[in-house]
Amino acid sequence: MSTTSSVSPDLRRIWRGVRVPLGLLLLIVLVALALVLSRGDQTSGDLEPGSYEPRGSHALAHLLQEEGVDVRPVHTIAEALQQADGGTLVITAPERVPGTGLTDLRRRVAHLVLVAPDANTLSTLVPTVTTAGTTDVQTLSPGCTVGAAVGAGTATLGGTRFRTDDSEARQCYRAGQDPTLVQFADRTGTVTLLGTGAPLTNDRLSDEGNAALGMRLLGDHQRLVWYVPSPNDPALGGGQKSFYELIPPGWRYGAFTAGIAVVLFALWRARRLGPVVPEPLPVLVRAAETAEGRARLYRRGGAAGHAAETLREAARGRLRARLGLPREAEAAAIVEAVSARTGRPAAELGGVLYGPPPEDDAGLVRLADELDTVEREVERS
């Protein structure tokens, strides 16, 4: 028995056209998902004291611990406030600290180190300092009197450039006219601004005097609270962020653009059906020859019963049309209508229209003649 596909040829052609770009889009989504999930591990972030990655800071944290410094990594403002009790506090991403956390933390520690603070952070803690753009990370000389910088000598600095008119501010590692390390000291403690966290990372720690600078800045007290603000901090107000929010904006824009490209590519590759174009048949086959060929096939296959049912169904269809009966009319209704029109007994007509199949070819011929006779009688009456 032959079967037909449930998918139309047009849909198959469209699928063949779009399966490659759809596969590429799926690959992009999977890569983005892998990146987002990998960011969920707090020990793999930038300047994370437990991270062994190039931009992590495990090497510096280990050196500080060997020198007797109690390094305490924290990731939420609640943990930072609990651990900050004197000593040094380094904040790797000050712009992520929620609420009034920066002000509260400033009062709790003796030395606050801010890595690449933004304009809002500066206006909150040190309003006399503003940002003056950015510069490449490069090897710079200290050129100041800050003990940690003098002891370290040249170091890998740059990033955010600062600008201040405060005469009490000590300015180091200038890129042009602007410093990339600024330090304040007053009765409440010390604040150090770093333009970049590059000298604190695993891959740059052994360059120039980076190790000495990091150890002197962060190891000036016995306790060091290392605060790497987490985007999942409940104090941010949103609690756990959704998967969509965790995807970087660039990836979201890229996925949206790729989706538009896939749709346009599908529309371009999909074949659209035009108007019907008549074409001459290469060979003309007469209807009589077709009917004769089908009859031979029925005869060769011994399908007298199937042929008889085909003849009866065709006759019943013509009779329904002539008698004004619906297509779904039942057998009894057809037989009664033909009997009323021709005057023949209903039992006789039932045998002709719905009787048992003939046993041989001779019976099939007789049935065909009887059907023709019934149709002619209905037509004449």
Your description of this structure?
- The protein is of the alpha/beta class and 381 residues long.
- Helix content is 46%, strand content 16%.
- The protein has helices at 9-39, 58-66, 77-83, 101-108, 119-125, 147-152, 210-218, 243-246, 249-269, 287-300, 304-323, 331-342, 346-354, 361-380, and strands at 70-74, 88-91, 111-115, 129-140, 155-164, 170-175, 178-186, 189-194, 223-227.
- The protein has a seven-stranded mixed beta sheet, sandwiched between helices.
- Strand 2, helix 4 (101-108) and strand 3 form a beta-alpha-beta unit.
- The longest helix is centred in the N-terminal third of the chain and has 31 residues, at 9-39.
- The chain is rod-shaped.
Short structural description:
The chain is of the alpha/beta class.
Summarize the SSE layout with pairings.
Blueprint: H1 9-39, H2 58-66, E1 70-74, H3 77-83, E2 88-91, H4 101-108, E3 111-115, H5 119-125, E4 129-140, H6 147-152, E5 155-164, E6 170-175, E7 178-186, E8 189-194, H7 210-218, E9 223-227, H8 243-246, H9 249-269, H10 287-300, H11 304-323, H12 331-342, H13 346-354, H14 361-380
Parallel strand pairs: 1-9, 2-3, 2-9, 3-8
Antiparallel strand pairs: 4-5, 6-7, 7-8
